[in-house]
Write the structure tokens for this entry.
Amino acid sequence: MYKYGLLLAQEVARYPSTSSSILLPEAHYPRLHYHNLQSILFDPDTMLSHIFCVATLALSALAYPRPLPDCGQKDRPCKCPSGTSFLNSTTYAVIGGSAKDIKAIAGSYFNTDWFGFTPDSVTGPDNTKGSWRTLTGETDVGTYTFLERLYEIKEKRDGSFLHKYDQKNNPVIFYPQHGNGSFAGYWDTLDVKYVDDCKTDVLWNIYACFTNGKSEMFSGFHESALNNITAILKTQGKLRSNGTAPWSISSDKQPS
């Protein structure tokens, strides 16, 4: 989802006028590489056997579809728990500052002031796989506390960095007055990539399993947070060029 979303976001960025009509794909599947396809079609010694095997496998897949795995950290088509819906949102922006300056603002996993929250508590060393932060926030169904665990981190000398984190305390059950429901898990990727000293690509993706949720709540929050980074850079005198305002691609459809 995320990898496909990144490619799609970058492609749509080239043609902004069409972005409003494009939806994020619900799932992605492995592609057949060109040299493999060439060997199947043009090798006379193996062509018939390959075609027979491919046809057999295709018919088997249609006759016995595999059930989707539960949603989790692995980037793949998945299914949400009963009573929840699959949500997916990817927000993309080009910020007119250096990746190192953006990392100084948003590169600490424990410092979340830039997106409007201060952790209630933190556990483990900052920017270390397995560490987590505790955040309390308002939702449409009350105020809840979430534990967010950092499960992957990458950093480069040019200032690029990657944070992947998830909801550690899932599910969080709704208060009784809000009916039966839960926040059954979410998985975020914040990917900041160096372009040059005056420009940085930022992509923020989330997929989640919530009851009665809407992906627009993620896109609005992420766009606001990325705008905050631009505002902070401007205040610091470190905004070096005009960027591209944050925009999002969202889907409320569950993969099948």
About this structure: Confidence is low (pLDDT under 50) at residues 1-61.
